[in-house]
Amino acid sequence: MIYGSTQRHAPRWRPARHYLRSAVSAELWDWLLDTGSLTHRLRRRCGGAFRVAVRRQFWGRPTADERRMLGMAAAERSLIREVHLLCGDTPLVFARTVIPVSSLRGRQRRLTRLGSRPLGAALFADRSLRRGVVDVVCLQRGEPLFTRAMADVAAKNATIWGRRSVFHLQERPLLVSEIFLPALLQGRTQRVSPTSPRGVALER
Questions:
Q1: Is 90:50 a contact under the CB 8 Å cutoff?
Q2: Model pLDDT, residue 4
Q3: 185 and 174 in contact (C-beta within 8 Å)?
């Protein structure tokens, strides 16, 4: 079955092929379906103004849907990390990462100490990385994930789109959801140039 952006009662996350191509712009599809490093792409766009703002990081139980994606038992805990990826002070992407405790062994324990460093840089530098199918979602105002993603965002959009994938590092899974915010598709993203006077915003 094919879904457009107004399909309210269907399960939210679906493989991209289940959505009408006309549901979003070609530019947004390009972001949703890009298989490369999102961190690298945003750094190319923002230059030295790219940064990560950690909104919260805690040990907890993921949602039932996230547990299903990761093959987790109901009682198993995860490290849950939510961040905004920004260009200067402008949030472009909201990312939620769920890492089961059982995946945080050996070298992967370093993922608990990322701080303000981007997860993507660590993932794509690991030769054991394997990425699963990309699912796509349309979030609507009032949904919890929409609310968290749009925190500190001035835009008043009624819907936003995102994607998620299960990644495997040394065959251990983690789930990354990336929600693309309105400023990402605006051609005049503001950023602070590292060579400009402090606090002077440049437009890109």
A1: no
A2: 44
A3: no
